Amino acid sequence: MKTVKRHRAERIALFNHKGGVGKTTLTVNIAAALASMGKRVLLVDADPQCNLTSYLIAEDVLDTWLDESDSSEGVTLWTALRPIVQATGDLHQIEPVELGIRRVKLLPGDIRLSDFEEELTQMWSDCFQRKLRGLRGTSALSQLINFVCADHSIDYVFYDCGPNVGPLNRVILLDCNFFIVPAACDLFSIRALKTLGQTLATWVSDWRMIDRLAPDGIYLLPGNPRFLGYIPQHFRIYRGQVASGYSKYMSQIEKHIASDVVRVLRKIDPNLASSSLSQNKLGQIKDFGTLANESQIQGVPLMLADAGTPDQREQARLAFETIARKIIARTE
Fold it and tell me: What's the whole-model pTM score?
């Protein structure tokens, strides 16, 4: 593969280093909502646990893909990245998988992405020494996305990443144009917000130093992930209102988003987050109970699940389409 100009598709990650905040479910449903509005969406399962792929693909099919990912006929991210990790060649181009959701495609995950992540630690250090292996390795996933987006006229890329602040998530966030923070209405999610902004600020600052050191003519990550908004979820409604047990968490989430994400990012670059607090909240997703569970079992978005009531599915559709419209308005 040859280095190419960065594709116009907007790259977005739903990022929170606390687990259990519903990143994968949000990713699938936001992608489906964008697709229903005519957008072409590429899902990238960049979590070695393969949660996104497991959500959308039958278990036996995924097992076969994982068994074959070392071969040139493989279809997972590891198939594409293996030559870079093993220093045997350039990226191996793979085709995205067609899904049952119209206009949504998938680059499948792989447990071997953990091998790529191990190499990224040294590659990151190599970047500070202007070594080409480090610069090429940190941008390898980004370049793969470029080719797929160009071949399939993609409008939006959504990375599904693991709940950590490891080297793989670092290069993913530095490749993104935007990031969204999903937050569960609980104490642990609020505590995680207190370090999220500082982690991102450190990554951006370090990458800007690398960018200054890098030789000319090298494809580099943009390193400017802008905060698009947050999405509180998993709360319950009582008589048309957020239940009191959850409302206190809502206000705490808003407070810490403003102080620990927006304010921290704006200190290093005002363009990384809006100063308008009213724009921080992209939407909210209530607890859909059995509908959410069944949608995962069936491998479809909530609004397409054969479960729950028509009213529940319609509420889900409206909630995610509201978020999708805001994403379009803020990124185009």
Answer: 0.94
